[in-house]
Amino acid sequence: MSLSMYQATIPTFVRMLNNLSAILKKAEANAAARTIDPSVFVGARLATDMFPLSRQVQIATDGVKGCAARLAGVEIPSYPDTETTFAELQARIAKTVAFLEGFKAAQIDGSEDRTITLKLGPQEVSFAGADYVFNFVLPNLYFHATTAYAILRHNGVDVGKMDFLGAR
Amino acid sequence: MSLSMYQATIPTFVRMLNNLSAILKKAEANAAARTIDPSVFVGARLATDMFPLSRQVQIATDGVKGCAARLAGVEIPSYPDTETTFAELQARIAKTVAFLEGFKAAQIDGSEDRTITLKLGPQEVSFAGADYVFNFVLPNLYFHATTAYAILRHNGVDVGKMDFLGAR
Predict the structure, then answer these.
(1) CA distance A28 to A157
(2) Which of A41, A145, B138, B156, by CA, is between 20 and 30 Å from B118?
(3) Cα separations (Å) of B104 from B10, B108, B133?
(4) Would an 8 Å CB–CB cutoff place B111 in contact with chain A?
(5) Given CB atoms, is A142 within the 8 Å cutoff of chain B?
(6) Residue A56 in contact with residue A142, Cβ under 8 Å?
């Protein structure tokens, strides 16, 4: 067996999104138990000029749907960024997981050297497929998933590292 | 070209550690500019029952040195967890980068299916090499690097996502 681009991406993304979904479920239950308006969590930030929880989930899902679509050479689905409740964030994660699970390994494998060009703010940046995955998509996914976790943890939600890493 | 275990690990780890080093340099400069005792940053936490910045850096470096050593079948170097200053955290990162850079691709490649067993708290957990990297080591590295970033960002350090992802 050797490593494949599919293995590095689709199941890895799905795993993290499922773990993020479980973390958000714990947060929703925690809000209910502590009689906290759930929108307080959904709008919570670690700094006034950082994005709130809802946007962390939106960016995490955007990154991985964009990656799968770009590597496979299919159109990137556009999701309106309108989520304001835990239910809506869960729906966005579920929609992204369903999109990812629609890819067959053959669509992703062999994209190691495919040139991937994306706009980062004002500039266009090009990567080889493997560099795009390892230097951009994976760190970006974990950055936003961890920030979502950290926002909740900072606000007293009883999540731990094993929720982030998921069950073996 | 196909994906290799080396590519998924050593250069990816080195890149993140170098970005983390740059983030810590910005934090140290920020502390000096705002006349904040640097130890306030080194000991800062996002929640009272979360680890401080220093421990985030220790765990991030532990994870990747352990991974490289386990995949290559060499002894894991033990670092005492005694860092209390930015200079000591930088030294730990530099020592880890030097250790990682000592591996040749041939030592890491082919470890996709090698059984990796580690103790997680009270239990022993076994992974195939590739699952260990994708489901444990990479998420864990980015979790602790992002938490370090988030601790600093929450405390007003002027870092941004591009510091985390690093230059193209």
Answers:
(1) 9
(2) A145
(3) 9, 7, 17
(4) no
(5) yes
(6) no
pTM value is 0.97
Least Cα distance to B89 among B158, B24, B144, B12 occurs for B24
Q: Are the C-beta atoms of residues B69 and B75 closer than 8 Å to each other?
A: yes
Report, as ranges of residue numbers, the positions in chain A whose pLDDT lies below 50.
none
Pairwise CB contact (< 8 Å): A143 & B143: no
Give me the residue label for tokens 């370090």.
B148
From the list B124, B130, B108, the residue with the least C-alpha distance to A11 is B130
Copy the structure tokens of residue A94: 């579920």
What is the interface size between A and B, counted as CB pairs within 8 Å? 103
Q: For chain A, say whether B152 makes contact (Cβ under 8 Å).
A: no
Q: How much is the ipTM here?
A: 0.97
Half-sphere exposure of A14 (CA within 13 A, CB side): 14
What is the pLDDT at residue A122? 87
Give the closest-approach CA distance of B8 to chain A in angstroms.
7
User: Alpha carbon B64 to chain centroid distance?
Assistant: 6
Interface check B30 vs A, CB under 8 A: no
**B121 falls in which pLDDT band (50, 70, 90)?**
confident
- In angstroms, the CA B145 to CA B124 distance is 25
In this predicted structure, the answer to whether residue B96 has a pLDDT above a threshold of 60 is yes
pLDDT tens track for A5-23: 999 999 999 999 999 999 9
Read off the amino acid at residue B68. Answer: A
Determine the residue among B53, B112, B125, B143 to mutate to test chain A binding: the one whose Cβ has the most chain A Cβ atoms within 10 Å. Answer: B143
- What pLDDT shows up at residue A149? 98
Question: Whole-angstrom Cα distance, residue B131 to residue B115?
Answer: 10
Q: A47 CB near a chain B CB, below 8 Å?
A: yes
Between CA B32 and CA B150 the distance in angstroms is: 19
Chain B residues inside the 8 Å CB shell of A9: none
